[in-house]
Amino acid sequence: MLADLSPLIAATARWLAGAFPAHGGAFAAARCEAQVRQAVTVAAWLRYPTALDAGLVAMTGPGGSARLDWVTGGDAADDPDGDWRTWVDEVVASWAAGLLGDPELASAAVGALGTGEHLASGPVDFRRLLVPDEDDRRAASLLRHPDLLAPVAALHHAQLLRRLDRPGRPVSA
């Protein structure tokens, strides 16, 4: 059984959704959350593909959101309940931003999951990440905008490309 990555996934998804908020109310926020959660799950499973990898990050912690906050101009001091930020994984956030801004890269990343241990219990549907409908796109217009995502996606883009065996592919803009 794999170590539980859910605190890391939840915190990183919360950070991305807060940095690139939904547009259009509660229903749009739910659609945006589903997309970001799927992107972060794919990124986390790629980054921590084995039980050992997942166990180590669960034990040591992923590092927090400080650099991401700096890159995006966010201010953790404005968050009175900021303890969750320690579970944000910068690399996972960067990879997820890359996947959200580049459908071809997202497809390659989901395809690469077939080589990891996370899908051993059965297939997982990443439809909102891979084929968002028009309402999904509208709700996540900031979250899917390659230019807005570029500062975060570029942080660890080369590492993502190496993981997907796609060296030299530029960040989408």
How would you describe this structure to a colleague?
This protein has helices spanning 6-19, 26-47, 51-60, 66-72, 90-101, 103-112, 127-130, 134-139, 146-153, 157-163. The chain is an all-alpha fold and 173 residues long. Helix 2 (26-47) packs across helix 6 and helix 5 runs antiparallel to helix 9 (146-153).
SSE layout and pairing:
Blueprint: H1 6-19, H2 26-47, H3 51-60, H4 66-72, H5 90-101, H6 103-112, H7 127-130, H8 134-139, H9 146-153, H10 157-163
**Number of helices, counting only DSSP H or I runs of 4 residues or more:** 10
Q: Please give the oligomerization state of what you see.
A: single chain
The ordered H/E elements are HHHHHHHHHH
Q: From the alpha-carbon coordinates, what is the Rg to the nearest angstrom?
A: 15 Å
Helical proportion?
55-70%
Biggest sheet details = none
The overall strand count is 0
Low-confidence stretches: none
Mean pLDDT: 89
The shape, in one word, is: globular
Q: Helices and strands: which structural class?
A: mainly alpha
Strand percentage lies at: under 5%
Euclidean distance between termini CA atoms: 39 Å
